[in-house]
Design a protein that fits this description.
The protein is an alpha/beta fold. The chain has one domain: Chloramphenicol acetyltransferase-like domain (Chloramphenicol Acetyltransferase). β1 and β2 form a beta hairpin. α2 crosses α3 and α2 crosses α4. The longest helix has 16 residues. It starts with a helix and ends in a 7-residue tail after the last helix. The mean pLDDT is 91.
Length: 191
């Protein structure tokens, strides 16, 4: 993913800078499309499976945390997600978001990697059923199946919190597997 990000940023030059978080939002959205049970909500006495994928992105402001929504994130390109998140984060910090831009959403991504946090557990935003906590990427030595040796890889720890009234551990694991596959093979996000 890092080499693809680098290539895309060279292509875009100064138009936009795609971040790791933009890939995370896109991979999350596509995983929600493939595992729709994770794109559900608890409504007190019933479960609603959403037929749209609106991913919230946690943004710190002076007034506290706010979660602007990337609407239809599964249908957007990574550059479009990047531009949208950057715009909404700027407006969130200045208090310029409209309520429909931060109220709702079907899933949340909370990324503390830029602060050097390696791993954490995020609290679910009701009525959503899941939130993804993203830690910092680190260089680690991992097995290399191609050479029967080892190699250095960028490894990121993510933690999926699930409301088990809606999304049990098996569904959460299925979602994480799809998300992991997209992050490890980002070109498949284009298919």
């Amino acid at each position: 993913m890092y080499s693809l990000r680098e290539q895309l940023n060279k292509t875009l030059e100064k138009e936009a800078k795609i971040s790791v978080n933009d890939f995370i939002v896109k991979a999350s959205a596509l995983a929600l499309r493939k595992i729709p049970q994770a794109n559900s909500m608890w409504l007190g006495d019933s479960i609603r499976m959403n037929n749209y994928v609106d991913v919230c992105v946690a943004v710190q402001t002076e007034g506290g945390l706010i979660t602007p929504i990337v609407k239809n994130a599964d249908l957007r390109g990574v550059a479009d997600i990047s531009s949208n998140v950057r715009d909404m984060a700027t407006r969130a910090r200045s208090g310029g978001l409209k309520p429909d831009e931060y109220q709702g959403g079907t899933f949340t991504v909370s990324n503390l990697g830029m602060f050097g946090i390696k791993q954490f557990t995020a609290v679910i935003n009701p009525p959503q059923a899941c939130i993804l906590a993203v830690g910092a990427s680190q260089k680690r030595v991992v097995p290399d199946d191609k050479s029967d040796g080892v190699r250095v890889a960028d490894v990121m720890t993510v933690t999926l919190s699930c409301d088990h009234r809606v999304v049990d551990g098996a569904v959460g694991a299925q979602w994480l597997k799809v998300f992991k596959d997209y992050m490890e093979q980002p070109m498949t996000m284009l298919l």
